[in-house]
């Protein structure tokens, strides 16, 4: 089959993969920050709950989590599952999974900041929110960026797991084309897409990292 025709057929799946990628980052990055606050909370029940959540999300496969989010409403509450819920289930599953990883990355970055900076901010009259968002968070973002980049690159590849709830992302589309045409060409095209997508992500993240490297 002509490569141009294969790419045209893959285009819809590419859009779905990009949508999953973008929506996951939009929701999981801020959610991860909130979870990290709970993980570092002095309120023990909050700390235990967030610690358990992180442990479950990181200790079980993302594929299994997607299935639980999608089939859970039916098996637990007898709710009917519509076809439109598939994409919603994928976005929920990806967001809560990646939020757990980002939470631990945030926590490591926040705890790496010396206590002296908090004390200096108090002396200067900064409130706790001002201290965090104006002084601490910019430093944390610089320190955690390499770890965040690794997770973002992994996310690009993990979008292929949406097939488990029959969301037609690009890898699923490639499998359908390959089966119909008995050819590996669609897989090659999909592989090129994933590589180029990851390359773009890596270049963008490196540019951000260089911009934040104020020691240069």
Automatic annotation (TrEMBL):
Q: Decide whether keyword Chloroplast is in the record.
A: no
Q: Where are the transmembrane segments?
A: 20-40, 52-71, 83-103, 185-208
This chain's protein is named: ABC transporter, permease protein
- Family, as annotated: Belongs to the binding-protein-dependent transport system permease family.
Q: Could you tell me one molecular function GO term of this UniProt entry?
A: transmembrane transporter activity
According to its UniProt record, where is this protein located? Cell membrane
In terms of Gene3D superfamilies, this protein maps to: MetI-like (1.10.3720.10)
Query: One Pfam match, by short name?
Result: BPD_transp_1
The record places domain ABC transmembrane type-1 at 14-205
Membrane topology term: Multi-pass membrane protein
**What keywords is this UniProt entry annotated with?**
Amino-acid transport, Cell membrane, Membrane, Transmembrane, Transmembrane helix, Transport
- Stored SUPFAM superfamilies: MetI-like
Transmembrane helix among the record's keywords?
Answer: yes
- Recorded source organism is [Clostridium] hylemonae DSM 15053
The record's GO CC annotations read: ATP-binding cassette (ABC) transporter complex
- What PANTHER family is this protein classified in? L-CYSTINE TRANSPORT SYSTEM PERMEASE PROTEIN TCYL, MEMBRANE COMPONENT OF AMINO ACID ABC TRANSPORTER
One Gene Ontology term of the biological-process aspect is: amino acid transport
